[in-house]
Amino acid sequence: MSEAKRYRLDPESYLAEHPQGDFVDYQDYARLKAEVERLTKVGDAMADYLFDAPFPCRVFYHKWNAAKEGKQP
Predict the structure, then answer these.
(1) C or N: which end of the chain has fewer Cβ atoms within 10 Å?
(2) What is the DSSP string of 15-50?
(3) Is 52 helix (H, G, I), strand (E, B) or coil?
(4) How far is the C-alpha of 25 from the C-alpha of 33, rounded, in Å?
(5) How far, in whole angstroms, is CA 11 from its chain's centroid?
């Protein structure tokens, strides 16, 4: 997957390409959003598998769900 082009506000040209910019192209944003959704589904499937595993693996299930909710595991 190629890196998304990032932009920052520039007084002279309005938007300038910048590696740590706060803005991305809409097409790149849509692609990144789709990739996050795909990886989240894979993570959910893996967490469900680990939930049925013996105790040491079950910890990762709870850590995954906490991370998805924005909590520190």
Answers:
(1) N
(2) EEE-TT-SEE-HHHHHHHHHHHHHHHHHHHHHHHHH
(3) coil
(4) 12
(5) 30
Summarize pLDDT for 2-47 with one digit per residue, the tens: 678 888 887 877 888 888 888 888 788 888 889 999 999 998 988 8
> Which residue has tokens 């506000």?
9
- pLDDT at position 1: 55
Residue 60's Cα: distance from chain center in Å?
Answer: 18
3-state secondary structure of 72: coil
Query: Cα dihedral sign for 49, 54, 59, 60?
Result: negative
Where in the chain are the domains?
A: 26-73
* Cα atoms in the 13 Å half-sphere on the side-chain side of 30: 3
